[in-house]
Amino acid sequence: MISTRGRYALRVMVDLAKNSQNEFITLKDIAKRQDISKKYLEQIIPIFNRENMLIASRGYGGGYKLSKSPKEYTVGEILRLTESSLAPVACLETKSNQCPRAGSCPTLFVWKGLQKVEEEYLNGITLQDILDREIDLSGNDYNI
Amino acid sequence: MISTRGRYALRVMVDLAKNSQNEFITLKDIAKRQDISKKYLEQIIPIFNRENMLIASRGYGGGYKLSKSPKEYTVGEILRLTESSLAPVACLETKSNQCPRAGSCPTLFVWKGLQKVEEEYLNGITLQDILDREIDLSGNDYNI
DNA sequence: TATAAAACCTATTGACAAGGTAGGTTATTT
DNA sequence: AAATAACCTACCTTGTCAATAGGTTTTATA
Questions:
Q1: C-alpha distances in Å from residue B100, one per residue of A13, A35, B87
Q2: Residue of B nearest to A142 (CA)
């Protein structure tokens, strides 16, 4: 299950994509707009700065803005950076988590396939896709 | 993330599909074969009995067997019964978990789409598919 | 009919991660 | 200098997972 970290991160990125016309947006504003604890966001969002996905500016007049066009961010990469793991089962998380029966496990391919399906889906959606979709939705949530 | 409950349940069902030629198989045997705590399985497997997916027999000579053909069980239904939730995010779990912003949330369609992709994948795999696949794999895990 | 063996039931526990809160430090503009 | 913003690190509370434990009920066999 995707945790609040990943969900909040995505909402912040969408907020930035939507509200920044090349000027810096403060986390304070985003936190208020999204109704998320600013303190909590402060430990999530710097991750993207380290990966050069955001440009940060400290001090008066500072804030964040995207470093690239919204179509160059996928939901998949945003979640990979913020979620502890996107693996659908523990035995696919790390090598050390791999179970000793992996070599003969008849169900392993099920989980590998699930992971593939998920990742392909998440890698196929960009921030721009979300912005485009939002225009369609404007005001209702019936058409999904 | 799929928990041990769901993973173990699937392994037990595959074990039954594979090892039962219409006779009852004890949880003791399955637990030993799968190297899973029998006591733990005892609180998972009766779920399937209640749903008439398994036939249980108590007492001497008793055990479990499938009530239908392996091709009539999907991974999806097995997981839905054993996992607390298959929703990819908390806000899709229950109505009471739905967030107040749902009506205007620009990211909600992403999660709904993810859920759909996952469920379609899991509903598309049967126990028979797993048995068939196992023959191919026999002894190696290179071809996935 | 006693006994063994099986499923079934319910409570409890220990560990761990999620989801924050708190209090500070560093950088930058006015 | 002062205000404001990002950034860092430690802590804490709560809930769930993954079992373990100790029983009860059912049924075939000796």
A1: 20, 11, 18
A2: B103
- Report pLDDT digits (tens) over B29-62: 999 999 999 999 999 999 999 999 999 999 999 9
pTM score: 0.93
CB B113 within 8 A of CB A129: no
Asked if A3 CB < 7 A from strand C, the reply is yes
Residues 70-99 of A with CB under 7 A from strand D: 90
State the virtual CA torsion across A32, A36, A42, A43 in degrees, nearest 10.
Answer: -170
For residue B101, give every residue at least 6 positions away whose Cβ sits within 8 Å of its Cβ, in sequence order, or none: A35
Report which residue is nearest nucleotide D27 when distances run from CA to C1'.
B59
Is the shortest CB-to-strand distance from A96 to strand C under 7 Å?
Answer: no
B62 touches chain A (CB under 8 A): no
How do beta strands A63-66 and B54-57 pair? unpaired
Residue A122, H or E segment: helix A108-123
Give Cβ neighbours of residue B80 (< 8 Å, ≥ 6 apart).
Answer: B86
What phi and psi values does residue A54 have, to the nearest 5 degrees?
-130, 155
* Structure confidence by residue, pLDDT tens digits, B76-127: 999 999 999 999 999 999 988 988 999 999 999 999 999 999 999 999 999 9
* Residue with tokens 């208020």, as numbered in its chain: A32
Set out the domains of chain B in order of their start, with CATH numbers: 4-138 (1.10.10.10)
Q: Smallest Cα–Cα separation from B50: which of B82, B89, B5, B83?
A: B82
Please give the full DSSP string across B36-49, using - where no structure is assigned.
Answer: --HHHHHTTTHHHH
